[in-house]
Specification:
Blueprint (H helix, E strand, L loop, with lengths): L14 H17 L4 H7 L7 H6 L18 H14 L1 H21 L2 H13 L4 E4 L15 E5 L2 E12 L6 E7 L5 E7 L5 E5 L11 E12 L3 E6 L1 H36 L1 E2 L2 E2 L4 H29 L5 H26 L10 H11 L6 H13 L5
């Protein structure tokens, strides 16, 4: 079903994984692809698709069925992210945050009561969540966190700000990370209708326009101690959630490369200059081949990560290498596709410029290219260059 799979990676998928990818592509081609340029231009997220995402198992697909997940493999989760981002990074961002940054921490670090109360409703799309880690002055240094959670009887009172939060203004709950009285970073499930909680949508974006991005303001937000994730203690817990999301990004980036390649190839075959299609030009063929190479490498890397993840052998540094490599490769591919499209490439009639601008954000969030370089550098040398 893929337009691009030069090394037949689809042959490595199980029948169930192939079926999941095919169903995701059919749905997204019918319900999202025809409208995504308009949503992006208008700066709106298609909230009406959230229940459909739940019905199709896009949310928490790799979590156990007893908690509302699909019990699917991590590769199945990956191909869903691939198909979502092949249409637009904003769609993948929504599902990635919901699955990996909201459902995963509740599943991994929450109490059994929290799991049973929240996870099925998040999986169905009845509830939407967001992940509050990054702060205005934090960025790549989450350890400098200023948000505080002060113990007050049977409650915690949370004060602070979080920045660049996907889903913030449409979220029903927020996973908020804050320092407790002992200076230990803890995670809290905060209902967004709690007094003192505000979300301010960030406007005027030139990237990820079909995604909701917000600032969260917590002013003496009081939550019951039972809302704390009991097993989340220290920054490592928050970063482990990012590892889950970064894994999905590696697949999504490969999906973008397919999208921009297929568009550029079709254009090059039909664009005539000097009496010949530009696809006959050596330099155009070189660009197309480089996109095929990038996609093949990204897809194989993501598939291998998925196998390691299913075998519980995955390391965060391995994910950093793939996030760094695949997203930067996708950004280069989108820029190259825009070149092939010429003047047409700057319009939203084609997807290259939209993907290119989206990827400027994806290249930055959940660890910049440079940060992931340092993570892998520390892993291979044993020396910390941060």
């Amino acid at each position: 079903m893929q337009a691009l799979d030069y090394y037949r990676v689809a042959d490595l998928l199980t029948p169930e994984e192939r079926l999941i990818q095919e169903e995701a592509r059919r749905f997204l081609e019918a319900e999202a692809a025809p409208h995504i340029a308009r949503w992006w231009e208008e700066g709106t997220f298609p909230r009406h698709l959230i229940p459909r995402f739940g019905e199709l198992g896009f949310l928490g697909s790799n979590l156990p069925e007893e908690y509302g997940g699909a019990g699917a493999s991590n590769i199945a989760y990956g191909v869903i992210m691939y198909e979502l981002e092949r249409v637009d990074s904003g769609l993948r961002s929504f599902a990635s945050v919901q699955s990996s940054l909201v459902m995963y921490p509740i599943y991994r670090y929450g109490s059994e009561e929290q799991r049973r109360h929240y996870l099925p409703r998040l999986a169905s799309g009845e509830l939407v969540g967001c992940f509050g880690l990054t702060e205005p002055d934090g960025g790549s240094d989450p350890g400098s966190m200023k948000t505080r959670a002060r113990k007050d009887g049977s409650s915690y009172v949370i004060t602070g700000r979080k920045m660049w939060i996907t889903n913030g203004n449409i979220a029903d709950i927020a996973i908020v990370w804050a320092r407790d009285d002992e200076g230990v970073i803890r995670g809290f499930i905060v209902p967004t209708d709690t007094p003192g909680f505000r979300a301010r949508e960030i406007k005027h974006k030139a990237s990820l326009r079909a995604s909701v991005t917000s600032e969260l303001i917590l002013d003496e937000v009081r939550v019951d101690a039972a809302q704390m994730l009991p097993e989340a203690r220290g920054l490592g817990a928050a970063l482990s959630c990012l590892t889950q999301a970064r894994y999905g990004i590696t697949w999504g980036a490969a999906g973008v490369i397919e999208a921009v390649y297929a568009e550029a190839l079709e254009f090059a075959r039909h664009r005539i200059t000097f009496g010949r299609p530009i696809a006959e030009r050596q330099l155009v063929q070189q660009k197309l081949v480089e996109m095929v190479e990038a996609h093949t490498q990204a897809l194989l890397m993501s598939w291998r990560l998925g196998k390691l993840k299913d075998e519980d052998k995955l390391t965060y540094a391995q994910v950093s290498l793939a996030k760094r490599s695949n997203v930067r490769a996708a950004l280069r591919a989108a820029r190259t596709a825009r070149e092939i499209l010429g003047g047409s490439g700057i319009t939203l009639e084609y997807g290259a410029i939209r993907h290119m601008l989206n990827l400027e954000t994806v290249d930055t969030y959940e660890g910049t290219y440079d940060i992931h370089t340092l993570i892998v550098g520390r892993d291979v040398t044993g020396l910390n260059a941060f």
